[in-house]
Write a structure and sequence with these properties.
The structure holds two protein chains of two kinds. Chain A contains three helices and seven strands; from the N terminus they run βααββββββα. By secondary structure, chain A is an alpha+beta fold. The radius of gyration of chain A is 15 Å and the shape is globular. The mean pLDDT of chain A is about 85. By secondary structure, chain B is of the alpha+beta class. Chain B is built from 19 helices and 35 strands. In chain B, the strands form ten sheets. In chain B, strands 3-7-1-16-13-14-15 form a seven-stranded mixed sheet, with helices on both faces. In chain B, α14 links the parallel β27 and β28. The model of chain B has no long low-confidence stretch (mean pLDDT about 95). The chains are: A alpha+beta, B alpha+beta. The interface between A and B is medium-sized, with 14 and 22 residues. Chain B: It comes from Mesorhizobium atlanticum. Chain B: Keywords: Copper, Metal-binding, Molybdenum, Oxidoreductase. Chain B: One of its GO terms (molecular function) is molybdenum ion binding.
Chain lengths: ~150, ~800
């Protein structure tokens, strides 16, 4: 499954970059994320509850950041196991471009694979669910940064 | 004495013999919810098993940790390949000469492959246990596309046989190659192509699908440690074969194994094979000393036990410019999945696919089939067809239409021009079969007249013009198919399963009051054997069908037989019934001659007894003869009236039929409407016309499903994306078209009652008929072949690719 998109976030590039590297912000923004713990600068462990069609499963796994080019781009890779529900793995290339001093355009391309029961039962729902989740994540990120800027 | 006040017609009607639309006796219990299926078997202390299955299509199994599972309340055991190795059962032989993992041994080769078997006190606990087993996988490159299986750098799937140069059917060319099977004369065929006026070539795929009976595969195994006896209740289309296979695998004496197939809720080929669930339940019962039940759920059934088809057929026909076929050349790439577990007679790795010359007089033909491994479920069963016969019929019927299109001839006319003629039977086909009988021209013409074929073509021409003028967005297709099946496997000279010749059997025992019981080696899964078998006996020996009880499925009481699949029951067991009945009749005739004080030759059979020729009042009925047989037989004759017959058929039978479908497709939505479907079947002698009609309705509905959407689809990473009835098309009454049925009768010359088998014909003839209708609809827009299944989306896509959607 491949997805790509663009979001305009009303925050300076530095703030967006910082948020994308902050486990607490990521945890708040990833839909269904119950835990996200930093192991090192580039490694985290995560627990995400996903619901696709008739299947609801808790995925536990590793998240790794790579190709770091602050504050312009990075890749985020993840792999999670959901027991008998199956597994999910994937990654996103994220890049940031300044749109004036107070705004940033975030572009992403996502490649993800799912396997096991979620793929068998949720097949026709996976693409739309993934698009919805990606949309939610960036909407959350925008809200979060706006809150921060309001707070500052 | 019989009641002579009745007329001959009344006496005959009372028998409800062959030709009678007798109501199905088994339906009395089925329609009242009183059937007895495997899941109804509930034994004291019975345990339940369930599988841990692989989410990956190809992966190394690094570790299996059962610790947490064993702590789940109710879980008693977790069986893995390591456990099975202690009893030498981690792998099992397949019917096709390959071996198959019972539980993952080091790696998994398809999604949902069995990895561990959890045994618990109830099904819920077993499921919780399954969720708690921790398996660590290391994913490997996945091979899904059969056309990439033989690439030099294709992933190695079967490490267990990587150095094996020879398989069960000859040399292997590649690590993912199973066999190459060739039939026919290559040189003569090539020569025919070299001098042909016209040739066509098309890659015709018959996609992977699944028999999907409503009742899934299941069993209850109970091992008696004191007697060392194993009893298995299971959904078995071939109970005796299962007993023999279990005996060979488990090294138990055959008399210590009792296999019982109770009522079965549909089989369609899915219940022929032996599956890991059976082995695991049996081992679990031996280990725990308690009965163990295993019942597949729907996803497991669709994704793990026995798919069907997955044949990719590159087909070429050579012909004269007048439309006379001169040669046929077919290469098949046969996707067998991870293990070769096809349920074909052992010497036939591609089943009877060499019936691919169909109903046409091809002077020469050449066929090559390459079987290959991929990361998909094993199987390859004959889903409501004789072995690979539906693939063959689809191949030739589609190809004939493509040839007609190239020649600008009407497809029905092309068929009539090339049919084997009535005087050519018995007909020897270029690929080695001897067709027993047929009258194809009569059947085709009757079909064409019945649907007013010429008028339909005129209407289609007018609609096409209207479409071109932009007056309609609907296109009309007329599908024609004319199939010849090969069923009734089979003669021992060319058919066996693991060395067991494919005869079948019947044992009839008449009781003193003129009633009786008949036991068979076959096993009904809904075909109505309890009804039809009694009808054959009724006609043969004049005992009313209502007075004959038919029993099947218990290996302790039924005579040995090879079971029910491939439309073999009527051609083989049906013949055994007639032969056993005739043995009884012969003894009855001796008794009647003695009692009527005449020579046997002076007697003639008259509906339900013997009459002295020329003396109509001197008559002895079968009811009386039965009593005499036990209580006052002629001196020197042993008492009793029973007989057994084991029937080894001299040839297969060759049912045929002409089907026509009329369909309209909306190019903007891809939505199709089946306006009309007419099916003419010739199955030889018709035993019960009502059951035949029911069989044809069911078979056509399955054909409709397959052609128009039913598919086991894998994505590129090996996920099954059609693993439930949400995505796997099973038509309900809402989608199912109305069926019109018709018939001709060309009895089989070598079968005792002339019957040929019918249950699978509509699937064999129906699939090409639907597909030809879709292809015919699109042909004027420039397409030659659109692959099945023809669901709305694919129709819309085809319309768009052909420029019909703006």
């Amino acid at each position: 499954m491949d997805m790509n998109g663009q979001e305009r976030i009303a925050a300076p590039i530095g703030a967006v970059w910082a948020a994308l590297n902050d486990p607490q912000v990521l945890k708040n923004c990833i839909p269904g994320c119950e835990a996200l713990e930093k192991q090192s600068d580039t490694e985290m462990t995560a627990k995400v509850v996903l619901r696709i069609g008739p299947i609801k499963a808790s995925f536990e796994g590793q998240v790794t950041l790579a190709n770091l080019n602050p504050p312009h781009s990075y890749s985020i890779q993840g792999e999670g196991k959901g027991g008998i529900a199956g597994f999910a793995k994937g990654g996103a290339d994220v890049s940031l471009v300044e749109d004036g001093p107070a705004a940033t355009v975030l572009s992403y391309t996502v490649k993800a694979d799912v396997g096991g029961k979620i793929a068998q039962l949720g097949g026709r729902l996976i693409d739309s669910t993934a698009r919805k989740l990606a949309g939610q994540f960036f909407a959350n990120l925008g809200t979060c940064l706006n809150d921060q800027s309001v707070g500052a | 004495m019989n009641d002579m006040s009745l007329t001959r017609e009344e006496r005959e009607a009372k028998l409800e013999g062959m030709g009678c639309k007798r109501k199905r006796v088994e339906d009395i219990r089925f329609t009242q919810g009183k059937g007895n299926y495997v899941d109804d078997v509930k034994l004291p202390g019975m345990l339940h098993g369930d599988f841990v299955r692989s989410p990956h299509a190809h992966a190394r199994v690094k570790s299996i940790n059962s610790e947490k599972a064993l702590k789940v309340p109710g879980v008693l055991a977790v069986i893995t390949a390591e456990t099975l190795k202690t009893v030498n059962l981690a792998w099992m032989p397949t019917l096709a000469g390959d071996v198959q993992m019972v539980l993952a041994d080091g790696k998994v080769l398809f999604q949902n492959q069995e990895v561990a078997f959890v045994v618990a006190t109830d099904r819920y606990a077993a499921d919780d246990g399954v969720a708690a087993v921790e398996v660590e996988y290391e994913p490997l490159p996945v091979l899904v596309d059969p056309f990439k299986a033989l690439d030099p750098d294709a992933p190695l799937l079967r490490e267990d046989i990587k150095d094996k140069k020879d398989g069960a059917h000859g040399p292997r060319k590649h690590h993912n190659h199973i066999f190459e099977w060739t039939v026919g004369d290559r040189e003569l065929t090539d020569a025919a192509f070299n001098k042909a006026d016209v040739t066509i070539k098309e890659m015709i795929s018959y996609h992977r699908t699944h028999p999907s009976p409503l009742e899934t595969c299941q069993c209850v195994c109970s091992f008696d440690k004191v007697k060392s006896e194993l009893t298995i209740w299971g959904t078995f289309q071939a109970p005796h074969v299962i007993r023999t296979v279990v005996s060979l695998i488990a090294k138990l004496p055959e008399q210590k194994i009792h296999v019982i197939a109770p009522d079965i809720g549909g089989g369609f080929g899915n219940k022929v094979g032996a599956y890991p669930g059976y082995i695991c339940a049996a081992v679990a019962s031996i280990v725990t000393g308690k009965p163990v039940k295993w019942v597949e759920d729907r996803i497991e059934n669709l994704t793990a036990t026995s798919f069907a088809r997955d044949y990719h057929m590159t087909t070429e026909i050579a012909a004269t410019k007048e439309g006379k076929v001169t040669g046929l050349r077919v290469h098949v790439l046969a996707d067998h999945g991870a293990f070769d577990a096809c349920a074909d007679p052992s010497k036939w790795p591609a089943g009877f696919f060499n019936i691919v010359t169909g109903s046409y007089d091809f002077p020469v033909a050449y066929l090559a089939v390459d079987g290959i491994y991929t990361n998909k479920a094993p199987g390859g069963v004959a889903y409501r067809c004789s072995f690979r016969v539906t693939e063959a019929a689809y191949c030739i019927e589609r190809a004939m239409d493509i040839l007609a299109q190239k020649l600008d001839m009407d497809p029905a006319e092309l068929r009539l021009k090339n049919f084997v003629k009535p005087e050519q039977f018995p007909y020897h086909s270029a690929l080695g079969w001897e067709y027993d009988s047929g009258d194809y021209h009569t059947a085709m013409r009757k079909a064409m007249e019945s649907v007013k074929y010429a008028e339909l073509r005129q209407e289609q021409a007018a609609k096409r013009e209207a479409f071109k003028r932009g007056e309609t967005r609907e296109i009309m297709g007329i599908g024609v198919s004319f199939f010849t099946e090969i069923v009734g496997a089979g003669p021992s000279k060319n058919c066996d399963i693991l060395g067991i010749a494919m005869f079948d059997s019947c044992e009839i025992r008449l009781h003193p009051t003129g009633a009786g019981i008949a036991r068979m080696g076959t096993k009904s899964q809904g075909q109505g054997h309890e009804t039809t078998w009694a009808q054959i006996i009724a006609t043969e020996i004049g005992i009313p069908a209502d007075n004959i009880m038919v029993e099947e499925g218990n290996t302790d009481t039924a005579p040995y037989g090879l079971g029910t699949y491939g439309s073999r029951s009527t051609p083989v067991a049906g013949a055994a019934i007639a032969m056993a009945a005739r043995k009884i009749k012969a003894k009855a005739q001796m008794i009647a001659a003695y009692k009527l004080e005449v020579h046997e030759d002076d007697l003639e059979w008259d509906i339900d007894g013997f009459r002295v020729k020329g003396l109509p009042e001197k008559f002895l009925g079968m009811k009386d003869i039965s009593w005499i047989a036990y209580n006052s037989p002629p001196p020197g004759m042993e008492p009793g009236l029973e007989a057994v017959s084991y029937y080894d058929p001299p040839n297969m039978t060759y049912p045929f039929g002409a089907y026509i479908c009329v369909m309209d497709i909306d190019v903007d939505t891809g939505v199709y409407k089946v306006r009309r479907f007419y099916a003419l079947d010739d199955c030889g002698t018709r035993i019960n016309p009502m059951i035949i009609e029911g069989q044809v309705h069911g078979g056509l509905t399955e054909a409709f499903a397959i052609a128009m959407g039913q598919e086991i689809h894998y994505d590129e990473t090996g996920n099954v994306t059609t693993g439930s009835f949400m995505d796997f098309f099973v038509p309900t009454a809402v989608e199912t078209p109305k069926w019109e049925t018709d018939y001709t009768v060309t009895p089989s010359p070598h079968h005792p009652i002339g019957a040929k088998g019918v249950g699978e014909s509509p699937n064999v003839g129906g699939v090409p008929c639907f597909s030809n209708a879709v292809n015919d609809a699109f042909s004027f827009l420039g397409s030659t072949h659109i692959q099945m299944p023809h669901d709305y989306w694919r129709n819309w896509k085809a319309a768009r690719e052909l420029g019909a959607v703006g």
